[in-house]
Q: What sequence folds into this?
């Protein structure tokens, strides 16, 4: 087996005394496709926020390719190859689709410190942004403000921004939420094009898509890992049927 | 082609006061330029950074005081006094930035307000250093490169050169890659951080740069008035410059300049005829906020768009 990409050890987080994530220990190897399952409120999104540094953890460690990033700022973790999408869309609504991608590209470029490099004249960035939008089939909308695009288009833009950063670990928080059947198929095809060496962790409730995508599944319940294993193992587990399928 | 012609016409318009024989109006034009540099510096924070500061007079005021002090009591030349004033004020902006940027939103407003009031208190009470209520006076205008700036026209040209430099800097800065980050940090700070940007540093650098240009405006202010008093550090001065930015159009290049012109003109011209000119200033702002809440420059743009609905498509 290859090296461990993302390793969580004893990770916990409470909100005002209510535990959201409890003592989570996980190891995800490079190139793995991992699915996080669990009912609403199981702590899946909170776990993502702890890994990315959007929220500070109460205790436990987070290792990214062996580096302890538990106390690192969110932006520093991005520079180590960690990118994510959000469940609730948080884009730059007044700016164009291409501009949103450019902000993602600049986040990893030294030019982000440059107060004299006129953005409009950075043909290199706009060209890369157009390619990134092309990948999700949005290049025809490149110059349209995000606020004037549909929900499905915004979801794909979210994905395009994360992919444009060429991450080594990609966290996808419900990439299919609220999409139509056709849009789901598009996104599914898109997920299949992610390079094999990229580690992908996904939260998703659409089990048809999610189960066909993931190799290993972790089930969370009340912030704790209750089952971890392959598709067959998890589906057969009586605890999963009890908490997740409500049987 | 048309844009170029319009720009050339505006440039010529700016040169006109330098050759007018009416000192009174030339001086008002100079005041507008100084206020425009001051308001443009605040606009970086308020308009592009989304950080409302109620202490921006602190930078203009401190710089004006330091420049005046260094010339009258320190015995330095104008050049060194000006450099010292801008340098010291910029360092102060760095310290104030660290303190203010512990918060955003209302917290930021309150900290900048408090720091501004401390400076005002120092200027007012530390009489041995600042001259207290009497302020500092008794210095002449500078002679950069042997040019005599005591005439209204010559000083206007000097102020115009500084203004042009400030405007050029701001217009490049806000359209730069760094400026894109600043505006991203205003609209979606958390998301920008998650894309690899350090939001705090972006805001801090902008805070210091805003302080720097505020200080430049302060040196102009001291040179123009040849007198500095605690009034320059008062809260009303911070509020006035904030009104210039908001009334003209925060987050636009021309907004603060238009706002500066409106305020300075009302203050000078109207006060010659009406004693209660502040009342009129207030009324003007009420009208602006009611009919053009986004400010004069974007408001007028909107009216033009409405008359010509078939405009070319959205631009990148």
A:
């Amino acid at each position: 087996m290859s090296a461990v990409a993302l390793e969580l050890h004893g990770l916990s987080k409470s909100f005002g005394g209510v535990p959201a994530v409890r003592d989570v220990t996980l190891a995800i190897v490079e190139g793995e496709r991992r699915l996080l399952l669990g009912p609403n409120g199981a702590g899946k999104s909170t776990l993502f926020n702890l890994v990315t540094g959007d929220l500070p953890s109460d205790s436990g460690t987070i290792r990214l390719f062996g580096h302890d990033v538990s106390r690192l700022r969110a932006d520093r973790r991005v520079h180590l190859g960690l990118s994510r999408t959000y469940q609730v869309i948080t884009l730059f609504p007044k700016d164009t689709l291409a501009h949103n991608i450019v902000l993602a590209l600049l986040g990893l470029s030294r030019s982000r410190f440059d107060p004299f490099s006129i953005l409009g004249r950075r043909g290199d960035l706009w060209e890369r942004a157009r390619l990134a939008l092309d990948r999700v089939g949005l290049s025809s909308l490149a110059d349209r403000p995000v606020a004037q695009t549909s929900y499905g288009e915004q979801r794909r833009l979210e994905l395009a921004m994360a992919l444009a950063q060429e991450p080594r670990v990609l966290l996808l928080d419900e990439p299919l939420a609220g999409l139509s059947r056709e849009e789901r198929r598009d996104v599914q095809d898109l997920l299949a094009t992610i390079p094999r060496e990229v580690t992908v962790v996904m939260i998703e409730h659409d089990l048809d898509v999610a189960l066909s995508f993931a190799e290993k599944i972790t089930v969370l319940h009340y912030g704790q890992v209750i089952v971890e294993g392959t598709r067959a193992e998890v589906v057969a587990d009586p605890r999963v049927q009890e908490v997740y399928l409500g049987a | 082609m048309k844009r170029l012609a319009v720009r050339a016409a505006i440039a010529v318009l700016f040169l006109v006061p330098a050759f007018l024989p009416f000192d009174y109006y030339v001086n008002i034009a100079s005041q507008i330029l100084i206020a425009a540099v001051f308001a443009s510096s605040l606009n970086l924070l308020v308009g592009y950074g989304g950080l409302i500061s109620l202490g921006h007079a602190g930078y203009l005021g401190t710089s004006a005081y330091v420049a005046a002090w260094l010339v009258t009591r320190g015995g330095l030349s104008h050049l060194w006094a000006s450099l010292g004033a801008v340098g010291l004020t910029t360092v102060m902006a760095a310290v104030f930035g660290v303190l203010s940027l512990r918060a955003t939103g209302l917290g930021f407003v309150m900290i900048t307000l408090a720091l501004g009031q401390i400076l005002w208190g120092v200027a007012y009470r530390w009489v041995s250093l600042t001259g207290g209520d009497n302020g500092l006076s008794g210095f002449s205008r500078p002679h950069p490169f042997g040019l005599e700036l005591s005439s209204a026209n010559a000083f206007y040209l000097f102020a115009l050169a500084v203004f042009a430099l400030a405007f050029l800097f701001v217009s490049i800065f806000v359209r730069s890659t760094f400026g894109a980050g600043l505006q991203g940090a205003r609209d979606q700070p958390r998301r920008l951080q998650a894309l690899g940007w350090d939001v705090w540093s972006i805001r801090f650098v902008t805070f210091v740069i805003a302080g720097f240009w505020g200080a430049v405006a302060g040196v102009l202010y001291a040179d123009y008035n040849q007198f500095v008093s605690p009034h320059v550090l008062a809260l009303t001065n911070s509020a006035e410059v904030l009104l210039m930015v908001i009334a003209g159009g925060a987050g636009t290049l021309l907004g603060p300049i238009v706002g500066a012109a409106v305020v300075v003109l009302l203050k000078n011209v109207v006060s010659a005829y009406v004693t209660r000119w502040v009342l009129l200033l207030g009324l003007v702002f009420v009208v602006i906020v009611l009919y053009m809440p986004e400010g004069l420059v974007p408001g007028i743009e909107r009216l033009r768009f409405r008359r010509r609905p078939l405009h070319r498509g959205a631009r990148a």
Summary: Residues 309-316 of chain B have pLDDT under 50 and may be disordered.
